[in-house]
Amino acid sequence: MxxxxxxxEHRPIEQCAPDELLGALFAQAPGFMAxxxxxxxxxxxxxxxxxxxxxxxxxxxxxAEALPELVGQGIVAMLDRVLDTxxxxxxxxxxxxxxxxxxxxxxxxxxxxxxxxxxxxxxEDILCFGYDVTERVNQHLRxxxxxxxxxxxxxxxxxxxxxxxxxxxxxxxxxxxxxYLAAARRASERKLCEAASETIALAEAQVQRAGDIIRRTxxxxxxxxxxxxxxxxxxxxxxxxxxxxASGNLExxxxxxxxEDPDVALDVDRVQIEQVLLNALRNASExxxxxxxxxxxxxxxxxxxxxRLTITDSGGGLAxxxxxxxxxxxxxxxxxxxxxxxxxxxEAHGGxxxxxxxxxxxxxxxxxxxx
Length: 371
What we know:
Elements: H1 2-10, H2 20-28, E1 32-37, E2 42-46, H3 48-54, H4 63-66, H5 75-85, E3 89-100, E4 103-117, E5 123-132, H6 134-188, H7 194-221, E6 229-232, H8 233-246, E7 254-259, E8 265-268, H9 270-287, E9 295-303, E10 306-313, H10 338-348, E11 352-357, E12 363-370
Parallel strand pairs: 7-9
Antiparallel strand pairs: 1-2, 1-5, 3-4, 4-5, 6-8, 9-10, 10-12, 11-12
C-alpha cells in the first residue's frame, strides 16, 4: 500500500499504465482502499475490503449515491477540503456509522485520504485507505471494563474484610454500651428530668443505629440481599439531617430542602440509604469548613422511572488528583471508604451516583434510585 501511494504521488496519473502487479496489490490489500474522482467523489477504483466494509459495491457511483449515510457525518465535506487544500486527512479511531443491509453499524477506522496530484498540479482524485480497527478497539474497551470490574471486586473484598473486622471488634462494646444506656434510662425515669431521659434515649438509639450500620454494611459487602422496605425520601433526609445537627456538623450552615414530590417513597434498605445520605452530608460539611459562605442544598425530582437527588455544597470543589470513589483515598485524612461504600450501596439498589465539581464554587453529589 505504501509503494502504491508513493508511485501515485511521484508520477502523474496520466502516465500510469495498467499494471497487473499493482492491480493485484490494490485488490488484495489487507486494508480497505478506494480512489474517488472529481468534486462529486465518484468511485473509480474499489478493492474487496472496501466493499466488505461498506456492505455494497460503490464502483461507478458517487459517494453520496452509494453511501448516503456518510454525507451527514461530514465525510463528503472532509473530502471536499482535501481536494480544495491538497492536504491529506489522517485520523486514528475515526468513528463512522454505516447502514449495512438495513442494519446500522458503528465502525472504528484508522483512515487516511490522500489527494493525488495531476500533471498540472491540480487535484481531482483522492486515494482513501485504512484499516477497520473496530474489533481491536472493542477488545480494548472490554479489557478496560474487565480491569475496572476486577479492581472493584478487589476493593469490595478488602472492604468486606474490614467490615467483618469492624463488626467483630465493635459489636461487643456497642452491645455493652446499649445495655448500659438502657439501664441508665430505666434508672433515670423517675430521678432525672425529662430532657435528660430523652437525651439518654437518643444516645441509645444512635448506638443501636451504629450496630445496624455495621451489620448491614457487612451484609452488603458479602453480597447478601438488602432488607428492603417502603420508605419516604423526605423521612430519610430528615433523619440524616437530625443526626448531623445532633453531632454539631451543621452549625453555621444554611440548609435548604426542595422536593418535587414531598411524599415520594422508595423500595430501599432504609439504614443503608440513610448511611449514604449521612456520608454525603458529612462530606459536604467538611468541604465547607473554611468557606466564608456555607450553603447546603438538597433537591429531588423525578427523572423518568427514577428519583434524582442532588446534594450541593458551597465548599472548595473537588481535588483534581483524587478519584472520590476510589477506595482508601481521602482528601481529609479519613479512611476514604465512604463514597466507595456509597456507590456499592446505590448500585445494589439499581441506582447511580456521581460527584461533580461546580466550577470551584463547591461540589454536587447526584444519585438516582428507581421508583
